[in-house]
Amino acid sequence: MSTRGPSYIQASNNNMGKLIDMIRQDVRFGDSLKACMNCGVCTAICPAAEFYDYDPRRICDTVQRGDVEEIERLLKSDTIWYCGQCLSCKTRCPRGNVAGELISVLRTVSQKMGYFRSSEKGLQQMSLMKSLQQNILDIGYCVYPDRVDPAYHPEQGPVWEWFHEHIADVAPRLGANYHGEGPGALRDIPKEDLVEVRRIFEVTGGMELKAAVLPTEGNEN
Fold first, then answer.
1. Domain 15-118 adopts which CATH fold?
2. 19/109 Cα distance (integer angstroms)
């Protein structure tokens, strides 16, 4: 797997060069941006581009040109958080670029540098880490019914409120192994498996990223 990317993105020792270094050093970078020719196919196929002021072609071009000032603006904007990670772009790019993967690289750099705090969509990452990531670490699930409290999710409506209240009776009827041992949906994840999940987070940098996004909480859990 190549991690070099376009040769004309030059690194330097100043803060601007640091951004380029961080992008280039991400193992995903080399395969996400090889040589964009600005055809715009990624934007044409992108579902997010239909609903937002979002142009993956322009993002690829900005990174490929090494326009550090524009990259910094991207990292501080809502733009990089519009991508839904469907990777439709991957299937259509004639050069084999993956704009969605490049967006993932930019998101990581934005989080590590603290730039995500400058945008509304970026700030949502704090809530996601406090909820979804913490759920994975605590119970092994991104989303678990017990933790989707109707009081905090009124958009779920009265049906969810009823289900949440009666889940212990209803879930087994639907085939779930609710808080049970062994296989089945909604089963309890064994503690030794949760230890392994946490270890994966540690080895892959997930806990380090958590500490960057939630600096006051990153070392507590």
1. Fumarate Reductase Iron-sulfur Protein; Chain B, domain 2 (1.10.1060)
2. 8
pLDDT tens for the chain, 221 residues long, are 444 444 434 434 455 678 899 999 999 999 999 989 999 999 999 999 999 999 999 999 999 999 899 999 999 999 999 999 999 999 999 999 999 999 999 999 999 999 999 999 999 989 889 999 999 999 999 999 999 999 989 999 999 999 999 999 999 999 999 999 999 999 999 999 999 999 999 999 999 999 999 977 544 55
Asked if 85 contacts 56 with a C-beta cutoff of 8 angstroms, the reply is no
* Helix, strand or coil, per DSSP, at residue 107: helix
The residues of the chain that CATH labels 1.10.1060 are 15-118
Overall residue count recorded for the chain in this entry: 221
pTM of the model: 0.81
